[in-house]
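Quick one: structure for this chain?
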Amino acid sequence: MERFKAAKRASILGIIGNIILLLLKGAIGLITNSQAMLADATNSAGDIFSSLMTLIGNKIASKPSDEDHNLGHGKAEYIYSLLISITMIVMGLTVAIDSLQSLINQEQFTFSIWLVIICIITIITKFALYLYTKNIAKKYNNLLMKANCEDHKNDCIVTTLNLLAILLGSIEIYFIDGIVGIGISIWIIITGITIFKESYDILMDKSIDDKTKELVYEIIKDHDTVKGIKDFHSAPVGYQYQIFFTIRVDGNLKTFKSHEIANHLEKEITAKIPEVFLTVIHVDPIHIDKNKAKK
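Got it. Here's what it folds into:
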């Protein structure tokens, strides 16, 4: 399936890119004692883990349904997104503590042109990965890719702030380095919490969004044979939803005809709305006074 192949390619590119950036940032950060650069390197280590979790989660989610998993393995995306978010929060707290200690102790770093060069390389690399993963996340509604996309975007902003701290350090304004390190950590934590909430909502069977539900109702309204709808429920199936509801039809119709209406609606809704994985409709025959209907 192209959705999973695209996510796999993006994950591999993310892993390769972040390993290179981690080695560069870590080496120059240790040499110059730049807390902002070391915080950025820690962020890259987290990005490697995120891309690896995306790769594993995507592989599991791509498996078709089987006897033990009738609705497929789609929720793996959200389980691994949850792991990514927890890791981001823990790493953000670690970076915050290190940067705060640096700020309190008034630690200084040695300016090097390589600090500037690595920041520029990081910004260009991360912006390219951001555009690539954003396209995949939007096209396939993939939360794992969305998490990666947000991570790449944050990295662009974070490294820009890092570059600012380095440039100020070149004129011996060092305290900004520790402040930027703390800022980076806060950004990582906020992003982690946001992804955690999205993953948690799906794993706890959050209902389908109102916009998609309205699309379902619009399709139903086009069918005069449907006299009403009740008991609408939904449950997540990976990145899609399974929906259940009851339609009211004329009780004077033959059983075959009323179920034919339901079957047609099930197929139409599932075909027209990509967010819907499966539609299950129950038929509720109601009494309709034909004489009143004619009037």
